[in-house]
Design goal:
This is DUF642 domain-containing protein. This protein is mainly β. The protein is about 5% helix and about 40% strand.
């Protein structure tokens, strides 16, 4: 009996440890610092599919050490000393223990190593959640950008895959991956005080506590789960950046969104409205305090638009995060669904000559609509 109890306790402990992989934070060996079994390696090339602890690999995958030389290029790693590179048909896979019906966001860092067009496919199975993410544009001077992707859990155990779908002349050519993490999303609901869901942007992807670069959020439409709950990101290949208050100037709360792609990416949300309602859209515009200077000649501009009107907000920035412009757009709802769009209008780069893209920060958005008198009586 003691042996049975001990065995049961062991199973419970193991199950709890496995389930912990779905907690907010890095996945087990998400930084790839647990080194592979060298007997399943050929130089830096992974030859055994289970060589890297906690991960399964397929295709051409390399285990990279920071400072490793690749031709004329020195490969660097953003956190720790190791990363992986996905070459021809290269993929990494890890099982996730999740709650069916819950939403999750996956964050990972990626860096290009080749001059050609590079992209990644991120997916989970079972289910058909899968998307391609372009990593062609580099948004930081380090060459490493953090990206995020979100999904709805349809099963208690799902397999996450990050795959390089691009075929190059050199089979080793492909992006490096590091710092893979997960976060549970708790999408807020609209209220009478604010028809916008997650107008304060407090529900978003995981940002590592020590990461100073924020997280890039690629295109997400209404058919996908968004890493920024409630908000679609409309674009072809560009992104918005999710930023936190420890590293950026945030107008309110702990998180905001930096519009780093000019007019090529927009935040979009559709809400239920009563036709004829008098609506009041408000939001804050500031600078991220990251050296993004925008003066008289080229100030930051944020365009807010709905079917009932538009508003251009001008914000002049010294790059130090000082000052916030509060914007107001009043309009009359004409449909039962109203689309709110927030976008930048021009490109900006940091003043340190690094070429790092930056832009205005938007936060604390609210939409309040008062139905016309007959509708108010019907609503009672």
């Amino acid at each position: 009996m003691v042996v049975i109890k001990g065995a049961l306790l062991f199973l419970v402990v193991c199950a709890a440890a496995r389930a912990a992989s779905a907690g907010d934070g890095p996945l087990p060996n998400g930084h790839f610092e647990d080194t592979p079994d060298r007997s399943q390696m050929d130089g830096s090339v992974v030859t055994g599919e289970n060589a890297i602890p906690q991960w399964k690999t397929t295709g051409h995958v390399e285990y990279i050490e920071s400072g490793q030389k690749e031709g004329d290029m020195i490969l660097t790693v953003p956190e720790g000393s190791h990363a992986v590179r996905l070459g021809e048909d290269g993929s990494i896979h890890q099982q996730l223990y999740v709650t069916p019906g819950a939403q999750y966001s996956v964050t990972f860092s990626a860096a290009r190593t080749c001059a050609q067009y590079e992209k990644l496919t991120v997916s989970v199975v079972p289910g058909d959640a899968s998307d391609e993410i372009s990593i062609q544009t580099v948004y930081t001077s380090s060459g490493w950008d953090s990206y995020c992707w979100a999904f709805l859990a349809t099963d208690g155990v799902m397999t996450l895959t990050i795959h390089n779908p691009v075929h190059e002349d050199d089979p080793a050519c492909g992006p490096m991956i590091d710092s893979v993490a997960i976060k549970t999303l708790y999408p807020p609901q609209a209220t009478g005080d604010n028809l916008l869901r997650n107008g304060d942007f407090e529900q978003g992807p995981y940002i590592a506590p020590g990461s100073p670069f924020g997280v890039l959020v690629p295109q997400r439409d209404e058919t996908h789960i968004s890493p920024i709950s409630g908000w679609m990101i409309m674009s072809y290949t560009k992104v918005v950046k999710y930023v936190d208050s420890p590293h950026y100037a945030v107008p309110q709360g702990s998180y905001a969104v930096e519009l780093v792609a000019g007019g090529e990416a927009a935040l979009v949300q559709e809400v239920d409205t009563v036709p004829g309602s008098a609506c009041r859209l408000e939001f804050s515009v500031g600078d991220a305090g990251n050296g993004c200077v925008a003066g008289e000649e080229q100030p930051m501009r944020v365009q807010a638009s709905t079917a009932g009107g538009s508003k251009t907000v001008v914000h002049r920035s010294d790059g130090n995060g000082g000052g916030t412009t509060r914007a107001l757009l009043e309009f009359t709802a004409s449909e039962s669904r109203t689309k709110v769009v927030l976008s930048g209008s021009s490109y900006h780069t940091k003043s340190d000559s690094s070429g790092t893209r930056c832009g205005p920060v938007v936060d604390d958005a609210s939409l309040v609509c008062v139905p016309p008198a007959p509708a108010r009586r019907l609503l009672r």
